[in-house]
């Protein structure tokens, strides 16, 4: 990806190769966002509230990629859907390009959604099996009155080629494709309206490892080509690091650390972030024993959140203050936020992340590849 990416209205930011974005008016601003669900206690009963998202603040600049990582149950997916109002937030503010998203209704909300899209985790359940690909990819264009007839068919063919599929794929059904090919269709549909912002909700987690890199590299190419902003949700910090300008780490509904990707990897200030990095298997298995820092226990229930810092039952740095006082998310350095009473001590311990994680994914440096996976039924390049 280019070292510098130009956003709309002349805004400029550094891409992943150049570090954190420079100061700019955010495209997306999230403040104090909360979403809770009532736990079921039976056929008619309503139990206590599950605080899936508990006071999250985020900024995202145009053309920037923000990685959102955490274990299952941390609230990542709910946050992404709440930002798009696929689920209604209970509290907090969402501003997109200066517009109060929570105040919009009807046509105004539909108009804004031309600029905000999502790629779902499971492409199989996200695609209607009764519709052909041309209907699935072309539906957003029809709904917003942007193309019909021959123009619609041509636009669908263009989108399919852009994600590495043959135009002839438009006449087939989702069941005729492999998992990776279905996800390419989902990506084409999300990009049909040329949005400014896309939520990528664990877009490769349901795919075979053998093709995850292909899909990630496709997302890199598309982001560079269209200068679209991504909220890239994943549980794999090593994977997110290949794509993101900045990373936000979520734990039990809250952001516990946020910084430029390189800063997160080199100087993590929260024990949970440090554990996520260290838990990634290193390329050299002989170093695995020395590097591994497993996270003890399971993520607590959001119904019964621990007092004080929610991570203290699993944290090797926890002391009495951690068990009693909930740490706020504060700056530990310029552009680096952490919610930890002992962030200075966590950072002061030597930490080398250079040999952690999987081998680097290929970053395209020339023009995007025109190679396509074989879409012939029965020949599943993407699985």
Structural commentary:
- 29% of the residues lie in helices and 21% in strands.
- The chain is built from 13 helices and 14 strands.
- It has an 8-stranded mixed sheet. Strands 4-3-6-7 form a 4-stranded antiparallel sheet.
Strand-residue fraction?
15-25%
Query: What Rg, in angstroms, do the CA atoms define?
Result: 21 Å
CATH architecture of the domain at 25-39 and 46-115 and 195-358: 3-Layer(aba) Sandwich
Model regions low in confidence, pLDDT < 50 over at least 5 residues: 1-23, 352-371, 376-380
Please state how the strands of the largest beta sheet are arranged side by side.
8-9-10-5-11-12-14-13
Largest sheet: 8 strands, mixed
Q: What structural class do you assign from the helix and strand content?
A: alpha/beta
CATH superfamily of the domain at 25-39 and 46-115 and 195-358: P-loop containing nucleotide triphosphate hydrolases
The percent range for helix content is 25-40%
Please tally the helical runs, counting DSSP H or I stretches of 4 or more residues.
Answer: 13
N- to C-terminal separation?
26 Å
What would you call the shape?
globular
What is the CATH C level class of the domain at 25-39 and 46-115 and 195-358, in words? Alpha Beta
Tell me, rounded to a whole number, the average pLDDT.
84
CATH topology (level 3) name of the domain at 25-39 and 46-115 and 195-358 = Rossmann fold
Could you give the order of the helices and strands? EEEEEHEEHEHHHHEHEHEEHHHHEEH
């Amino acid at each position: 990806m280019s070292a510098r990416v130009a956003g709309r209205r002349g805004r400029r930011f550094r891409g992943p190769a150049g570090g954190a974005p420079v100061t700019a008016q955010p495209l997306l601003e999230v403040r104090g966002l909360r979403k809770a669900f009532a736990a079921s206690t039976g056929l008619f009963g309503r139990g206590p509230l599950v605080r899936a998202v508990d006071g999250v603040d985020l900024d995202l600049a145009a053309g920037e990629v923000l990685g959102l990582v955490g274990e299952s149950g941390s609230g990542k997916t709910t946050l992404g859907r709440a930002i798009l109002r696929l689920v209604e937030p209970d509290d907090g503010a969402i501003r997109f390009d200066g517009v109060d998203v929570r105040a919009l209704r009807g046509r105004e909300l539909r108009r804004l959604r031309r600029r905000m899209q999502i790629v779902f985790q499971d492409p199989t359940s996200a695609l209607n099996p009764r519709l052909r690909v041309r209907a699935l990819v072309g539906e957003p264009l029809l709904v917003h009155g942007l193309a019909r007839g021959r123009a619609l068919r041509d636009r669908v063919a263009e989108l399919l080629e852009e994600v590495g599929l043959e135009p002839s794929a438009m006449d087939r059904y989702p069941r005729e494709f492999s998992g990776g090919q279905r996800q390419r269709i989902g990506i084409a549909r999300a990009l049909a309206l040329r949005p400014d912002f896309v939520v990528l909700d664990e877009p490769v987690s349901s795919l075979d490892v053998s093709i995850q890199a292909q899909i990630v590299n496709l997302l890199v190419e598309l982001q560079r080509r269209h200068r679209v902003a991504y909220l890239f949700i994943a549980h794999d910090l090593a994977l997110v690091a290949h794509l993101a300008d900045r990373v936000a780490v979520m734990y039990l509904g809250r952001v516990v650390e946020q910084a430029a990707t390189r800063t997160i990897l080199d100087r993590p200030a929260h024990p949970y972030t440090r554990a996520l990095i260290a838990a990634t298997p290193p390329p050299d298995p002989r170093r695995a024993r020395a590097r591994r820092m497993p996270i003890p226990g399971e993520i607590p229930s959001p119904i019964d959140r621990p007092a004080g810092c929610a991570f203290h039952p699993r944290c090797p740095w926890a002391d009495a203050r951690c068990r009693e006082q909930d740490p706020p998310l504060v700056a530990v350095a310029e552009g680096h936020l952490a919610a930890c009473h002992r962030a200075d001590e966590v950072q002061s311990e030597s930490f080398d992340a250079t040999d952690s994680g999987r081998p680097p994914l290929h970053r395209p440096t020339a023009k995007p590849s025109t190679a396509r996976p074989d879409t012939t039924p029965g020949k599943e390049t993407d699985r």
